[in-house]
Amino acid sequence: MKIKDHFLTQEYFEVKPSQYKGILQTFPQPKEEDLSKYYDSPAYISHQTQAKSLKDKIYQRVKSFMTNKKRQMVLKHHQQGKILDIGAGTGQFLEVFKKEDWSKFCIEPSIKLHPELSEKGIKRKDYLNEFEDHSFEVITLWHSLEHIPDLENAINQLRRILKPDGVLFIAVPNHKSHDAQYYKKYWAAWDVPRHLWHFSRRGLKSIFYDYGFNCIKETGMPFDAFYVSILSEHYKSKGNIVMAIFVGLLSNLKAVFNNKYSSILYVLKPFKEQNTHEDIDS
């Protein structure tokens, strides 16, 4: 399927099956040194510190609510230790953790955000291989995994630097969701070429299993269906907000029964003994 970069360059890319079952890939994949130009926009929302439009204000409100919810999920597993957020943006997520309980680290490619992260007391590295083995109690990737070029190497590194009792949180869009099927080439969560990979539930759980992770929990992210549908309507027909709300609502209602939410948060832990494959849905 040919997909347009509606957000920035208006270039066309292809999304087609990758070598991994249940995972699609963007073709051609931009060279790593060229990727930064596809993020070079003041409208790129994960890098914004101020909300300008109504859409941005809604996004920031929901993001703040979800940040506190994510914090509570982390604290159910670990109350203190070292935490790494990959693709930290402005550092909003790590900021909610008390510095006396947590040593906070991040990887964030955007150079212009580095001073802000430093001011918030967040230590930064450029690459996963800069961390020692078994460094972290918690590692998080909130809509970041789909941006990483070398998927296998990244997962292998995550397994290496996570402690044996550590927890990995990953949120990614789901290309099997109702809103993805409805909007097709206009689905905003394709977000080519910034999104290099496109996951189904089966695809994500299978590839992480192959690298020593069990998925212990998965949770739908219902707000994403509405936000993605609003953007998709804009790309498709210049913004039918009523239709966007209807599609988002229907997507969430269907997902109550089939678990195919627009975005899904996966909680994964390393397994120690050899396991038999669990049933993994599509």
From TrEMBL:
Entry-linked InterPro entries: SAM-dependent_MTases_sf (IPR029063)
Source organism phylogeny: Bacteria, Pseudomonadati, Bacteroidota, Flavobacteriia, Flavobacteriales
Domain of life of the organism encoding this protein: Bacteria
One of the record's GO molecular function terms: methyltransferase activity
GO term, biological process aspect, one: methylation
Signal peptide: none
Protein name: Class I SAM-dependent methyltransferase
Keyword annotations of the record: Methyltransferase, Transferase
One Pfam match: Methyltransf_23
